[in-house]
Amino acid sequence: MTSDFSQFSNSTFLQACLGLATPYTPMWLMRQAGRYLPEYKATRAKAGSFMGLATNREYATEVTLQPLDRYDLDAAILFSDILTVPDAMGLGLSFETGEGPKFSSPIRDEAGVDKLEVPDMGKLQYVFDAVSSIRKALVQDGKQRVPLIGFSGSPWTLACYMVEGGGSDDFRLVKSMMYARPDLMHRILAINADAVAAYLNAQIDAGAQAVMVFDSWGGALSHAAFAQFSLAYTRRVLTQLKRTDSAGNIVPRIVFTKGGGLWLEAMRDLPCEVIGLDWTCSLSSARNMLHGTGKALQGNIDPNILFAPPEAIYQEVGAVLADFGAPHTGQGAGQTHIFNLGHGISQFTPPEHVTALVQAVKTQSRAMRAPAR
Fold this sequence. Notes:
By secondary structure, this protein is α/β, with parallel strands linked by helices. The protein has helices at residues 12-17, 38-47, 50-54, 57-70, 84-91, 110-115, 125-137, 155-164, 172-180, 182-206, 223-240, 264-267, 283-289, 310-324, 351-369, and strands spanning 76-77, 93-96, 100-103, 139-140, 143-144, 148-153, 210-215, 253-257, 274-276, 296-301, 337-341. A hairpin with a 2-residue loop joins strand 4 and strand 5. The longest helix is centred in the middle third of the chain and has 25 residues, at 182-206.
C-alpha cells in the first residue's frame, strides 16, 4: 500500500501519519473549527442552531475551512459532532445553549438495549455529503490544500452519553450499568463499535483521507475496566476500517484517549497509525514505549497555554518539541510527531494566540531540522 502525495499542496500531515520525514512538524488543532472564531459564530447565527450548522453541507464546509483561511494548519477536520451515530439510532439529540448535548431517550434498561441496532447510514447522509463538499472546496489551482480528517466518538464514549443522557461529572449511571449488568454494556458497545466502523468507512468512501476515534471518556475507567470496556471495542472498530480509499491511498487511523497515558503499553499493538496524547503524558516516554511499533504520536500541549502571552506560548511549544526529541529525517519510516493540543481548544481562546502557537511550531520545528553548521 502506498499514498500519492502529488495531489496535495501540503501533505505533511499524512506523511507524518505514515512515519515519513517532513520539513517541519505538521499540526492541526482539535476543535479547530469552532466557537473561539468570530467567523464561526457568524455562520452559526445564520444556521440558527448547532445541528442546523452540522446538518447543512454548505455551512459545515464553510466552518471547516475557516481555520485554514486564518491559520497555516496542515489538516482540515470535518465539522460535525461525535454524537451523530447515537442520534441516528433514535436517541433524540439536541443542544441546549450553555448545557451541551442532551438525549431525549437515553438507554437505561434492558428494554432500551433491545431496541438498539446499527443505524441505517442513510440517516447520516448529511455527514457524508459534507465530507464530499469539503474535499471539493479544499482544491485550489488543481491541488488539494491539505488532507481531510473524518472522525467519530469511540464506542465507550458514545455509550457514556447514551446512558447518562448527556455529559456527566461522575459517570454514575453508565458505570452502574457496567458493573451491575456488564452483559447489557457489552451489547451496547458491540453495536456501537459496528456502527462507528460503518460510519467511518462511509466517511472514507465520501472522501475522508484519515480517520480519528475520540475516546474522550476512556480515562474515566479503572485499569481493568478500560481494557474490557473501552480498548477492546476501539480495537473492534479499527479492525473493520478500510485500509485504503478508492484510489488506493492509505487512510491513517488515529486513536485519542483522554487520560490514556496509563495504558500506552496496552495500545502498542492497536491496529492504528497514530496515537494521540493529552497534556499529562510525556512525549519522550511515549516515544520510548511505542518504539518499534511504527506509530506516530499526536499532541500534546495544554490547551490553556493559549490564554498565556505569546512569549509563554513560544516557550511551551519549545518544551513540547524538545520532549518529543530529535525529529525523524532522511529516507524511510521512523517515529514522527504531529503537533496538536492535548484536548479540544477552549471557546474562550483569543484567536491571535492561535496565530502565535502556529508560528512557534513552524519556526522551532524547522530550526530543529536545519543542518548543523
